[in-house]
Amino acid sequence: MPVAFKEAPAPYVPQIQFNDFEISEKLKQNIIAKGYKTPTPIQDKSINYILSGLDIVGIANTGTGKTAAFLIPLINKVMLNRQERVLIVVPTRELALQIQEELFGFTKMLSIYSVLCIGGANIGPQIAGLKRQCNFVIGTPGRLKDLISRRILNLSQFKNIVLDEADRMLDMGFIHDIRFLVSHMPKERQSLFFSATISPEIQSLIKDFLDQPITVSVKSGETAVNVEQDVIRVTRDKKMDVLHDLLIKQEFQKVLIFGRTKHGVEKLSVSLAKRGFSVDSIHGNKSQYKRQKTLNMFKTNKLQILVATDVAARGLDIESVSHVINYDLPATYDDYVHRIGRTGRADKKGKALTFIE
């Protein structure tokens, strides 16, 4: 049974333009050079609070521009005081890499340095990077904890923390690691907290970590308004053929396919490649280097199809994905929402198809 497009809301009219924010002119130039024209709702509503030094709870769907919402004011803070240090904690390696990429664009020619501290990558360069003066440390909880235990990372100097995709970090069992990290930071700090959902556990974290925070909510319902959703009923023996017949259609230009297991995703990717499709996969059995290389190929349209486990379902910002296909059913409704949120981003229309046997 097809699910039609919801009525798309009128275009958002921000109360303030990037030019009006009280930030460095050089930073403004970098924002413009990155192609940012007008602030998204989360940027419009939170940047000034963050510039004022307040703690923030940002409730926003994925793909709403929240990375820029916290990076822009924090970069400005570092430009005003080069001793400022910022810790950004995220649930996945992919999201950490994405935030660092965004940071590079905003800090061009500003002499602001960052270190990426993620698992699955060589710890040597990370240790070397931390021994130099860096203003931003972006990392996943396990690796950050490891670096603190080795006495390489000293969080007593960090007076700014961003917890991004906090709900996902809780889902992945990082709650104790997060508490460990925060316990090593100064009591006097600025804490920014971003989550798509606010559960009782999240409320408890907010109460423990933030000081009289301002809540900024721009969540626009459970699923993206720009995503048309449909279900395809299929028998197991015909599943691959049905998928093939969809992928050869002209409108299936940039397709993200989700499978349940690492083995299943790899097998599907190989089968599609044998049928002549431009395809690759990302899952937990692949090295960080290979995953990033594949992601970059998909982002730059060198691949038509990316097959992935749910490791890719959160936080990844890939432009112009025309279709998301749930080849295997997601484990939870929340996973479904995050999977289909990979399409229909930045005011573009997208389609999500779910195979049901």
Strand order, largest beta sheet: 3-4-2-5-6-1-7
Shape: globular
Largest sheet: 7 strands, parallel
Strand content: 15-25%
Q: Would you tell me the structural class of the helices and strands? A: alpha/beta
* Annotation field: number of helices: 13
Distance between the termini: 14 Å
Please count the beta strands (DSSP E, at least 2 residues each). 13
Write down the oligomeric state.
single chain
| Rg for CA atoms | 21 Å
Poorly predicted residue ranges: 1-9
Percent helix range: 25-40%
How much is the average pLDDT? 88
Task: Please trace the helix and strand order, writing H or E for each element.
Answer: HHEHEHEHEHEHHEHEEHEHEHEEHE
Structural description of this entry:
- The chain is α/β, with parallel strands linked by helices.
- Helix content is 38%, strand content 17%.
- The protein contains 13 helices and 13 strands.
- The strands form 2 sheets. It has a 7-stranded parallel sheet with strand order 3-4-2-5-6-1-7. It has a 6-stranded parallel sheet with strand order 8-13-12-9-11-10, with helices on both faces.
- The two termini are 14 Å apart.
- The model is unreliable at 1-9 (pLDDT under 50).
Outline the fold blueprint.
Layout: H1 25-33, H2 41-51, E1 56-59, H3 66-80, E2 86-89, H4 93-106, E3 114-117, H5 123-131, E4 136-139, H6 141-149, E5 160-163, H7 166-171, H8 175-183, E6 190-195, H9 200-209, E7 214-217, E8 227-233, H10 239-247, E9 255-258, H11 262-274, E10 279-282, H12 288-299, E11 305-308, E12 323-326, H13 333-340, E13 350-356
Parallel strand pairs: 1-6, 1-7, 2-4, 2-5, 3-4, 5-6, 8-13, 9-11, 9-12, 10-11, 12-13
